[in-house]
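Structure ticket #2291
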Amino acid sequence: MMPGPQNREIPPTRYNVWSALRYVSPSCDHRAWFRILAAIKDALGEDGRDIADEWSQEGDSYDKVAFRDAWKSAKPGGKVTIATLWRMALDGGWKPDSETQPETEAERQERERQRKARAEQAAKQQAEAAQRAATKAAALWKASAPATTDQPYLARKLPGITPPDTLRETTAEQAASILGYTPKSDEESLAGRVLVAPVKIDGKLSTVELIDGQGRKTAIAGGPKAGGFWAAQTLPEGDGGGLTLAIGEGVATVLSCREAVSWPVFAALSASNLPTIARTLRARFPAARLVIVGDIGGGLEYARQAAAAVGAALAVPVFADEEVMDWVRGHSKPPTDFNDLHQVAGLDAVARQLRRAVEGEPRPVPPIPVAIPAPLPESRPKVVDLTGENEARLTLEARIAATDDFEILAYQIGPEVIKSGLRESTKARLLKIIAKKSGISVKAQPFQTGIINNPIQFINTPTASREPC
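Resolution: structure written out below.
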């Protein structure tokens, strides 16, 4: 029974779903947003798609492709039910229409029957899709050749390093022939020579990750990745005693770590998968020392969760100011992972930082960035342009790892501060985190300098009513 103003169960009608969504911000963090989509789909099935899409379009970071993919991946009959939406809406001040008629027992039973039928159908379709994906993955792996050092992605990310036997390569054309469709990433087709990384769950091939020379990545449609990982080597024997195992997000990141310190490495292939893979490997190797290799950015919180869940060390790359500047000049974005550190500072730097994390030595504080005090000084820091407008896109998330928590960050060089620009897709989420942790409402306002493109000025304002997220 869902408690509410009338202390009665709320019927999951289209009207009630629409009404409840008025009290939940579509600009909430991605996890909460996805849970709401799953709640709607669990209650209404495909009949709820238009309501979910209309609500999502009101968010700061709405993307029709992201919505399409999220809605497709939401499965009815899971742990998330309509109660999730009711709870969030009620917390936000929603009061269900007092004239809404409660369900009769017959209506409730019919609703549950339909819900169960949708869940069973979804589970059946998911199992069939997973089997097709596994079959295609095996065929693609068999048809592929051993990866070589001149494969474009490897040559760019790991120059001169011999790829392990657990990587193969094919062409985008051959992959399309086997898969029956053109593999794409964010609506862009993969092209040229494509890296093939097998993903296994419980020791069985479930899908493969495909990576082309431009770094476009995708997996086989219908093949589960959650709970699966790519291993650079065969799994060690025994309980892991005397071993140090590293778990990171991407293939290139963990290969840089392997090359630097010769540890067995595993790629979770997404930040959200890190905690699950950490638990899997802890259960498989209870005596091993685990190191979670985190990327700077929104996925860092998952790395922290993974480390905490299994008692692992957490290693996050630290970049010197000149390294950041050099990287931005060449890539128009800040460095974020250990492969970036490998490329900008060398394998010795990677090895030092990994060993420091394992040995528990305090991490040195980088000369930049520094946190902007809260509340901000009344006088605005001088904003300058060093290398062009891309300088403003040394984003907040790129330096989150330099602090113990999410903070408002900027780059300080002498007396001058370059304030970070926030991508629209991350602005609302980070602002809410900042507001929640500091107990204030944080507002972003654009200001004009004539130099920097889309800078953001952060201003402390009196605490506002909490926006549910």
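Closing remark: The first strand starts at residue 145 and ends at 146.
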